[in-house]
Amino acid sequence: MVAGLLVHPLGYAILMTCFVGIMVIEFYRMTVKEENKTGQVLGFLSALLLFLTTYVVARYGVGASRYMMLLLILSVTATWISVLYHKSESAYRTGAFLLLPLVYIVFPFSTFNFLVFNSSGSFQGTCLLGLFIILWASDVGGYVIGMSFGQKNGHKLFPRISPKKSWEGFVGSVVFSFGAAYALYATGFLPFAWYHCLVLAVIICVAGVFGDLIESELKRYAGVKDSGRIMPGHGGLLDRFDGALLAFPVAVFYVLFVVLIP
């Protein structure tokens, strides 16, 4: 992960494209399962094309991506057309799930491209890595403090969806994310003022909790414990990136349009 964000833009593209593809597969396995296999292939192709199109736009400009945009439009259209040939009472529900990953998974990851490439197309993955470090610190804080103080006599954060989450764990997430954000500012890893780093910590911490809850609700709907088994003891990639899917688009917007990096 660290190498993919720091070493070379091609490595970053391969890494993130793999992540997107695996998460879309996990999403389909939880929702549409064995229905409309043709639509799943087309939806999967649409997801990869959406991420790669924004990658090309961010790195080379809009003009360089016109053919990929055409392929993206055709693949999305074909996904919808496949719904017409899916003979099932749940055809349109399935169709909605086929394209939902474009919004839920691929759009958040596509925003990364506009952060790791500056206005001249040069690769700079440190800002995105900094956001991930804040998110990882938030997760660690929520786990450590939640397990220590929130499990037995703690105050439940959202018991209907995630009975194990507590307000104590949320406070731990805030404290740890603040600590990580300030450390990134103090070491110069994030080239922002300290207050911008703390605002990013708030965005990532709060929105990350909602992202976690949304994925928990999805797993409840699907009747599964984990989104996948690619990481023993941790579940699938959706389980690892659930917070980032909601938090990072907001954080990237803040960096690009409020902090205004070049």
Question: How much strand content do the residues show?
Answer: under 5%
Radius of gyration: 19 Å
Q: What is the total tally of β strands?
A: 2
Number of domains: 2
From the N-terminal CA to the C-terminal CA, the straight-line distance is 24 Å
Unreliable stretches (pLDDT < 50, length at least 5) are none
Described by strand count, sense and barrel closure, the largest sheet is: 2 strands, antiparallel
Which strand order spans the largest sheet, edge to edge or round the barrel? Answer: 1-2
Number of helices: 9
Helix/strand/pairing category? mainly alpha
Helix content: over 70%
**SSE topology string:** HHHHHHEEHHH
Shape: flat
Structural write-up:
By secondary structure, the protein is mainly α. The protein has 2 domains: 1-124, no CATH class; 125-262, no CATH class. It is 74% helix and 3% strand. It contains 9 helices and 2 strands; from the N terminus they run ααααααββααα. The protein is flat. It starts with a helix and ends with a helix.
